[in-house]
Amino acid sequence: FGIATDENFVITTTNRKELTEDNFSELVQDGVTLYLLQSVDQMLLSATKERIDFLPHYDTLVKSGMYEYYASEGQNPLPFALAELIDNSLSATSRNTGIRSIQIKLLFDESQGKPAVAVIDNGRGMTSKQLNNWAVYRLSKFTRPGDFESDHSGYVRPLPVPRSLNSDISYFGVGGKQAVFFVGQSARMISKPADSQDVHELVLSKEDF
């Protein structure tokens, strides 16, 4: 790696967790991406890419929430799909000490790309591992294995209040991935953890699947 004998360096995960003798077996697994840095908080010189390999449940593509949405008792199912996406933002901002900002944008300027629905919030953000795990189908934010780093880590179900104010507004509970593929063909998640300088991005698309 061209490291001088008197030069200090650290090896970290993409979440900037430094590898040590104590946590090596826990952090280093097949397929994990590691950074070789001069310090844990060193700025990255360029963007890095990491391919997420998992077998998507066929329901992600075949059903995409259709059964639940088409069984919406004659109501327009689109608002329920949007509610699933907003539900993620409500959960992410539930512990904000300041203003909770959630924006919903409908983008139709084809010079900027294909039409899209964008949900933007100022929540705590997700690590690369949490984004990875969000991609896995049918892993509820309330029932996950103990070693599973959830995108809702530390989440506490809110006290009973009107559904529009808490983070349990999703009507059918089919999850953000099904909502995405019910509305469109791909999902792009961009997130910056509150305590990190790194920005993580995840892309899922029917074409790639």
From TrEMBL:
Could you tell me which Pfam families the record lists for this protein? HATPase_c_3
Q: Classify the source by domain of life.
A: Eukaryota
Q: Which SUPFAM superfamilies match?
A: ATPase domain of HSP90 chaperone/DNA topoisomerase II/histidine kinase (SSF55874)
InterPro entries named in the record: HATPase_C_sf (IPR036890), SMCHD1 (IPR038892)
Q: Name one GO biological process term.
A: double-strand break repair
Gene3D superfamilies on file: Histidine kinase-like ATPase, C-terminal domain (3.30.565.10)
Q: What is the protein name given in its UniProt record? A: SMHD1 protein
* Origin species: Grus americana
